[in-house]
Write a structure and sequence with these properties.
The chain is mainly alpha-helical. The chain has 4 domains: 28 residues, no CATH class; 71 residues, no CATH class; 108 residues, no CATH class; 42 residues, no CATH class. 42% of the residues lie in helices and 10% in strands. The strands form 4 sheets. It has a two-stranded antiparallel sheet. Strand 7 and strand 8 form a beta hairpin. The longest helix has 20 residues. The two termini are 22 Å apart.
Length: 267
């Protein structure tokens, strides 16, 4: 990307970009290309190996959570798991290889994720159970840890960092009071749990208790004042809209992006 293109993407003039060049390079962790990065011995210092584009933004996988690193490594995108280091990653591979060899030695075992999924799907159809969220009777099902209801066993359908809502299992786990109540170890029912009530802004609390990812929705949810953008006054639906939060203030997606550009321009 040329310097003028980067300035345009950040919403600043070329003159400002030139004056703030060092800060911009530090912000995006930009480095001058070094031909020696191609050497196997220099893989640790080669940013091209570790940088990923996530929703249009560059991210160093070494700064990502362990789960993201494991997923990237399992897909062959990085040479080893940064959080573990090269040696521990090799040890983990050896353990997995030994386990796979042991599994292959068992003649009656179902091999492969697709075979397991097909077997589970047939069991679902035979049992007549259906997903309590989408109603599917053909997808493989499992029971939720929090409430024991049948739900699609479809976490694998979710693409990491896409923030898509295409997985029933993930949606219930991430966006409901039922799951939050269980994961936090609260006692009693989530519907009348004071800790759950205090854990969220009222609007988010209502969203988590009444959205379509619940098996049982919150009755008589508390009223709340709509959230407005602190800059333009637009109503923001905290459950569905994109927004930027700065202290107690909320900004709609458009105004939030402008504020980020202003920070880059003024720093």
């Amino acid at each position: 990307m040329r310097a003028d293109e980067l300035c345009k993407a950040c919403g600043v003039s070329s003159a400002t970009g030139s004056a703030q060049g060092k800060k911009i390079r530090d912000l995006f962790k930009m480095r001058q290309l070094d031909p020696e990065w191609c050497l196997p011995s220099r893989v640790d210092s080669n940013p091209l190996v570790w940088m990923f584009m996530v929703n249009g933004l560059p991210m160093d996988i070494r700064d990502a959570p362990l789960g993201a690193q494991l997923e990237a490594y399992s897909q062959g995108l990085i040479p080893y798991i940064p959080a573990l280091g090269r040696e521990q990653t090799q040890e983990l591979d050896a353990q997995l290889a030994a386990l796979e060899a042991q599994t292959m030695a068992e003649p009656k075992a179902k091999r492969g994720k697709h075979a397991a999924a097909r077997a589970k799907s047939r069991a679902t159809e035979k049992s007549g159970q259906r997903c309590g969220i989408c109603g599917s009777t053909t997808k493989p099902l499992t029971r939720t840890n929090c409430c024991g209801n049948w739900i699609c066993d479809d976490e694998d359908d979710y693409v990491m960092f896409s923030y898509a809502h295409n997985s029933c299992h993930r949606n219930h786990d991430r966006y409901t009071l039922c799951s939050y109540h269980y994961n936090e170890g609260h006692s009693g029912k989530w519907q009348d749990c004071e800790k759950c009530r205090a854990g969220f802004e009222t609007e988010i609390y209502v969203y988590y208790g009444t959205n379509e990812y619940n098996f049982e929705k919150l009755e008589n949810p508390p009223a709340f004042e709509p959230t407005h953008c602190a800059q333009c006054g637009k109503v923001i639906n905290l459950g569905y809209d994109g927004y930027l939060q700065s202290g107690p203030k909320y900004y709609c997606e458009s105004c939030g992006n402008k504020r980020i550009r202003d920070v880059i321009r003024n720093d």
